[in-house]
TrEMBL record:
Protein name: 2-phospho-L-lactate transferase
Organism in which the protein naturally occurs: Oerskovia douganii
Alphabetical UniProt keywords: Magnesium, Transferase
SUPFAM superfamilies: CofD-like
CDD domains named in the record: CofD_like
EC number: 2.7.8.28
């Protein structure tokens, strides 16, 4: 089955891995509005999280970065007086150095991503949402913050009052993105943060329209389980932007974009209210514990969409 996953962050990477383990012909469209330049290097955190996970290289304990990392370069930068609030491991730095050099030589982010994933043995196709620069800006009581300043430097403690995706209106989808959205057998909106990971992808002109018109069976997996986010600030962002912190609140965001809402068995009582929105509901265990759990969930999504 041809499957496209819209993804950002750890939840998206885990589900993409599950789809690959389940044997799907997989394309992953990845959020790039989290990208940042630090120490002169082009860093794409979500692309790298998905890449490392599919390559079997990710640090599953932390949920990001590479397993077995060392930090000699970061320690040396700190001694030289550089700001090191963003943790970069020595092996991870190699990825950013290679990406930066190839981008400066004239390659697109799509081309560089294909080169890096091939070098690391990733079988699936990873597509950045755009080759253009788009940046998530978070509005807070202390003013506007770049995404990584909000998320990493300030540990997403600030209340999110609004979001702007700078550059999105002028961006175009990366080559292959629209086909990946309109043409698969199954399209899955991963259990990623709806506002910080999925909305940036949909903000690129043409992508939301393509999802609305897609001939694929469209399924969204809720990142909220029992009123809480499994990881990250999804719950707090839902609340601060005026939405119900529940699988029902997430379902309301995806009305018109998906056919099926997949929710955790903890939230089965919400199924009738979600069905009243015009969505089908799949109730299962959405908590992906290890490779076995990822593959199990992927197979259930594939079976429900066959």
């Amino acid at each position: 089955m041809r499957v496209t996953v819209l993804a950002g962050g750890v939840g998206g990477a885990k589900l993409a891995h599950g789809m690959e383990l389940a044997g799907a012909d997989l394309t992953v469209v990845v959020n790039t509005a989290d990208d940042v330049e630090l120490h002169g290097l082009a860093i794409s955190p979500d692309l790298d999280t998905v890449t490392y996970t599919l390559a079997g290289l990710a640090d599953d304990v932390r949920g990001w970065g590479l397993a077995g990392e060392t930090y000699a370069t970061l320690d040396a930068l700190r001694r030289l007086g550089e700001d090191t609030w963003f943790t970069l491991g020595d092996k991870d730095l190699a990825t950013h150095i290679a990406r930066t050099a190839r981008l400066r030589a004239g390659a697109t982010l799509t081309e560089v991503t294909a080169q890096l994933t091939a070098s690391l043995g990733v079988r699936s196709r990873l597509l950045p949402m755009t080759d253009d620069l788009v940046a998530t800006v978070v509005e807070t009581a202390d003013g506007s913050l770049g995404f990584q300043e909000y998320f990493v430097a300030r540990q997403h403690r600030d209340e999110v009052l609004g979001l702007t995706f700078v550059g999105a209106e002028q961006a175009t989808p990366a080559p292959g993105v629209l086909d990946a959205v309109t043409g698969p057998d199954l399209l899955v909106v991963a259990p990623s943060n709806p506002f910080l990971s999925i909305e940036p992808i949909l903000s690129v002109p043409g992508v939301r329209d393509a999802l609305e018109a897609s001939s694929a069976r469209r399924v969204a997996v809720s990142p909220i389980v029992g009123g809480r986010a499994l990881k990250g600030p999804a719950a707090s962002v839902l609340a601060s932007l005026g939405h119900d912190v529940s699988a029902l609140g997430v379902a309301r965001l995806y009305v018109g974009l998906v056919d099926v809402m997949c929710i955790d068995q903890t939230d089965r009582d919400l199924a009738p209210a979600i069905e009243a929105l015009g969505l089908e509901v799949l109730v299962t265990d959405t908590v992906m514990g290890g490779a076995e759990g990822r593959e199990r969930l992927a197979r259930e999504l594939l079976a429900a969409s066959a």
